[in-house]
């Protein structure tokens, strides 16, 4: 027990970084925290893998676990790679079995819930990742992906995101019905593409499709934010504060892995440890009222921790292979 407390304290220290002591002590008190979400929450390949999470590919260092350590709260993490809003009420098939509906984890005494969901609804994220890189060769300086998803003048992905907003709002109401005392936070998605510039060796998109990817993720986060406002939940903005930490950023600054799977860092197009730590810190700051910014000291601490975790993962090849087997058949968000 003492060792567990020490590890939690160390994790919280790395996470909180330069948060002023006054704000850290102002953290509200919670007892039972439930984390819901997709693979931006479960964090596949972020060391070290939770092998007991089966096909949900959760990490022991995803943002719910980092946040729980900082808050000293009991956590039930049912996030699952590939989940969408329907998996709040319906079982989810994974490569290693069936995951229970995520709402099953909610209880009347649950007093904190975080939700990271929406990117998989109607296949929006998967459609971009599966389609856009393959179109780059046809028009490398244009925007062939945007053209592909625009039908009769209508952006079909944006239309799907509008429907996703309604689904997320229903999720908020479902949480309230099951856990009426809970503080509910909807955690947004950090930036994948930069606002300006390109890095085709990391993100193999046509030049004009960088702004398209950026705008689609911006629209997705707006949908999450609007659903939170409509339902009386709190939106955690990770999109704005992740500026400069997109997949094109240098190693140590990037929160998002590029096109290549890195068994020691993250699944492709998914958050690295630095991204999970950033999401946890921004959620913590939202709870405490601290400015939703990322300092250089925080980023440096997270990058150092990521290097340490990568070394630990490299020393556990069996765990890496087991984790790879869990996601080998699909790209999950």
Automatic annotation (TrEMBL):
This is GDSL-like lipase/acylhydrolase family protein. One of its GO terms (biological process) is triglyceride catabolic process. The keyword Cytoplasm does not apply. GO terms for molecular function: triacylglycerol lipase activity. The keyword Ligase does not apply. It comes from Kribbella rubisoli. Residues 35-275 form the SGNH hydrolase-type esterase domain. Disulfide bonds join 56-80, 132-145, 199-248. The active site is at 39 (nucleophile), 270. It comes from the Bacteria. Keywords: Disulfide bond, Signal. InterPro entries: SEST-like, SGNH_hydro, SGNH_hydro_sf. Residues 1-26 form the signal peptide. CDD domains: SEST_like.
């Amino acid at each position: 027990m003492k060792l567990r407390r020490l590890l939690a304290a160390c994790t919280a220290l790395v996470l909180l970084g330069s948060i002023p002591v006054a704000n850290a002590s102002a953290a509200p008190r919670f007892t039972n925290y439930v984390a819901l979400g997709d693979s931006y929450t479960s964090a596949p390949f972020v060391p070290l893998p939770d092998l007991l999470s089966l096909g949900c590919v959760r990490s022991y260092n995803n943002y719910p676990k980092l946040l729980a350590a900082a808050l000293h709260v009991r956590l039930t993490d049912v996030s699952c790679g590939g989940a969408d809003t329907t998996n709040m009420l319906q079982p989810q098939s994974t490569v290693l079995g069936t995951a229970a509906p995520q709402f099953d984890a909610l209880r009347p005494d649950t007093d904190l819930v975080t939700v990271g969901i929406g990117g998989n609804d109607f296949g929006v994220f998967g459609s971009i990742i599966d389609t856009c890189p393959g179109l780059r060769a046809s028009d490398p300086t244009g925007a062939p992906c945007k053209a592909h998803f625009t039908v009769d003048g209508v952006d079909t992905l944006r239309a799907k995101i509008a429907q996703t907003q309604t689904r997320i709002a229903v999720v908020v109401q479902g949480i309230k019905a099951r856990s009426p005392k809970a503080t509910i936070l909807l955690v947004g998605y950090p930036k994948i593409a930069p606002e300006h510039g390109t890095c085709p060796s990391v993100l193999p998109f046509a030049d004009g499709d960088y702004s398209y990817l950026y705008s689609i993720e911006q629209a997705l986060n707006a949908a999450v934010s609007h659903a939170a406002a409509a339902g009386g939940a709190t939106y955690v903005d990770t999109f704005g504060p992740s500026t400069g930490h997109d997949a094109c950023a240098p190693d140590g600054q990037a929160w998002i892995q590029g096109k290549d799977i890195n068994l020691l860092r993250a699944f492709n197009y998914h958050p690295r440890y630095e991204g999970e730590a950033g999401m946890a810190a921004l959620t913590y700051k939202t709870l405490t009222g601290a400015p939703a910014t990322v300092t250089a000291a925080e980023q440096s601490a997270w990058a150092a921790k990521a290097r340490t975790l990568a070394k630990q993962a490299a020393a556990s090849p069996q765990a890496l292979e087991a984790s790879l087997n869990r996601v080998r058949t699909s790209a999950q968000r």
